[in-house]
Structure formats: C-alpha cells, structure tokens
Amino acid sequence: MRHNISGRKLNRKTSHRLSLLKNLSKSLIIHEQIETTLPKAKDLRPFVEKILTIGKTDTLAAKRKVYSYLGDQKIVEKVFNVLGKRYQKRNGGYVRILKSGFRYGDSAPKAVIELVERDVNVKGIEDKLREKNKNKESGAPMPQDKASSVESQKPNNQTIEKVKDQDNAKNKEKDKVTDKKSIKKDK
What we know:
The protein has 7 helices and 3 strands, in the order αβαααββααα. By secondary structure, the protein is mainly α. Helix 1 crosses helix 2, helix 2 crosses helix 4 and helix 3 packs across helix 4.
C-alpha cells in the first residue's frame, strides 16, 4: 500500500520523472501557459508553486536553490525579478489548471496549465523573435503584415533595369564567344 506517498509515477523512473517536471516547469515559467496531459499538470503544480514561493525571497541561497531546480540563469532571473514581484502579496495558488478535452491519438485527458495573473504577450514570444531573426538572416520572404516595414528597403525600378541590362550584356558576350567557336569548327 502507498500510504502517505504523494505524486504519480507517470510510467517513468525517478530520474526521468524529475527531468520531465523540470523541463515542464521551465516551459511554464518561460511561456506562462502550456498544454500537457492532466496527470502531468497535476504533478507539475506543486513543483512550480514551490519554485515560485522560493522566488519571493530575493537571497543568494534562494537563487541557488531555484537554479538547482531549473539550471538556467535567465529563467532564474525571471523567477526572482518578474514572477517574485508579481506574486509578492499572494500566499500560494500561483498556478491554474484548466481541462481542455482529450488528445486525438490516445484519448488522454489534456489540460492547460497557466500562471495566475499571467502576461498574455509572453506566450510564444521566443518563437516570434526566432522567426524574425531567421527571416533577417536568410532573406526569406516575409508574411504580408511584416512586408510593409521591408518595402522601404526594396530596390526601385531603375536598379532592377540596370541589373537586367548587365545580365543582357553578359549573355550577348557569351553568344559571341559560342559563335566564334562554332565558326572554327566548320573549317
């Protein structure tokens, strides 16, 4: 019998289960809202709430403790600078779990787990920044809503005509060279 043993095993070994909770908590702190299965969300809630409670006290020992859970200095700074200040007057209950139906493949119950009083603009901001930087570096076409800021950088018709003229001149030179070669072969 499992008397006084809290939490689920989630069909994982202890080390795998702890790494799962750490990764889910990192994602939750970064995005402030994630979707996962209901049992994982229920196990994640106390894990994250302990981290956020520690984050309310801004001491070196507290930062080291949170760093031992999360392992990323940027996330630790967010816990102490943003979330710790946000929840300073709240005595727990930092996380909300909302059921969101069933997963298509195996009918597992899904849940959205989010921070209470969350910043709506935070979710997906890293993906937007990564997409923006990728488009800048590769020169790939941008969606229409972003194209207006890029229009000023587009070349005008005169530069396009100059490039076309240069290409035409190069093609004519190649044609002359091939004509001379064909004449020599005829002799």
